[in-house]
Amino acid sequence: MSDELLTSVDGSAGRLSLNRPKALHSLTLGMCEAMSAALTKWRDDPAVAAIVIDHAEGRGFCAGGDIRQIADSAARGGADARRFFLSEYQLNHQLFTYPKPVVAFMDGITMGGGVGISQPARYRVATENTRFAMPETGIGLFPDVGGGWYLSRLEGRVGVYLALTGARLDGADCLALGLATHYLPSDALTEAKERIAAHSGDILDILDQLSVTPPEARIVANIGQINRLFASDVLEDVLTALDENGSEWAAKELATLRSKSPQSCKVALRQLAEATQMTDFADVMRMEYRIASRVAVSPDFTEGVRALIIDKDNAPVWNPSTPEDMTQEALDAIFAPLPANEEWTPL
Question: Mind telling me the catalytic residues?
C-alpha cells in the first residue's frame, strides 16, 4: 500500500498522493482505506492545518475505481465489490464533511472515483491538462461517488447531460461550471503546494494569486440546447427530443446515447432526480450504495467491461437492449432499500 498511496506531512499540510501511474492512479480498496485512515489521524492533529490531494507521477489525477478488480469480484458474487464501494463512499463522505480545508489538484484525467475524491474538496484546482468525466453509463454502471449530489446541482440540465453521455470537460469547462474553484497552469502547481505547506491558512489567497484566465469554456455555448433537449427525466423523451431536433450536435449526442446502457441511463436519470430532493450528502451515498450493490453484479456491467476494457471491441450487447425494455419494476428493485445490516453507513 505504501507504493500505491504516498502519505506525508509537508509543513502544515497533510498530503495524499495517488501513485499507480500505470493504472492512471485508479483507486483500489487498500488506497481508499489508507486515505481514510490518514484523514482520521490528521483530523485531530493540530500540526496538520490542511489536506492536499494530488498524484505522485505520470498522467492523470485519478481515472476512477479499478474497474477490472470490481468486475472480477462481480463475477464471483460481488462481495469484494460491495466492500470496495462501501469504503470508497465512506471516503467520499469523510472528505465532504472534513473539518479542515482540502485542496484537490485535478491535473489530468479526473473521472469516476477521481471525481469522488476531488469534488468534496473546498478548493478544486483545474489545469490545461484536466479531463473531467463521469463515463459510467458506457460500462453499465452509473455516475456514483456522490455524482447524484454534484451533477444534480449544476446549472440547468448540464448534470443530466454529463451523466447520460459521459461527455468530457476540460479545465476551462470545469471552472465555468463550478466543478473547479481555480484554474492554474500546471507549471505553477509545485509552487502552489509549497506555499500551501508553508502557509496553510492562506490557501484562498495563494490559489487566487497563482490563477490565470482560462481559455473559452466550450460547454457554455451548448448549455441552451442541453437544457432544451435533456429537459426530461424520461430517457425515451430525451432520445426523441434529440432525434427530432435535426442538428449536427443533436445527432452526435443521440448516437452517443444509443451506445450507452439503457439500464444505466435510466438509473442515472432517477438517481439525479432523487438526489435533488436530498439535503444530506449521506442520504445520497446511501442511495448510491444500494444502486451499486445491484448494478455491479448485473449483466450490463460484465458486458460493458468486456466490450470496452477487456476485448476492446466497443460493441457491448446490453440487456435490456432498449429503454422500453427496462421496466419500472426492475428500476424500483435497483433503488430499493437493502436489509438493515447491509445498508451503507458513514465512518
Answer: 65, 113, 136, 144
Q: Is 11 left (phi over 0), alpha (psi -120 to 50) or beta?
A: left
Give the pLDDT confidence of 306-346 residue by residue, as tens digits.
999 999 999 999 999 999 999 999 999 999 999 999 999 99
347, amino acid identity? L
pTM for the full predicted model: 0.97
pLDDT in tens, 168-199: 999 999 999 999 999 999 999 999 999 999 99
Those residues with Cβ within 8 angstroms of residue 200's Cβ, 6 or more apart along the chain or in another chain: 11, 12, 13, 49, 50, 101
* Cell 469554456, located at residue: 217
Strand order in the sheet with 182-183: 5-10, 13-18, 50-55, 102-106, 123-126, 182-183
Partners of 169 in the β-ladder:
132
